[in-house]
Amino acid sequence: MKNKKRNRDGFFKDTLFESISEVVWNILMFIPRMIIRLIANIW
């Protein structure tokens, strides 16, 4: 019983970590694109 609960907690932690890391990665990829667009619009 305890082992199943531990596996489920690990699964939720992994899922949560993957979601957070994906959001952070998307933000990091989004910022340079916006900067490039801004520079292209200024010139």
TrEMBL record:
<protein>
    <submittedName>
        <fullName>Uncharacterized protein</fullName>
    </submittedName>
</protein>
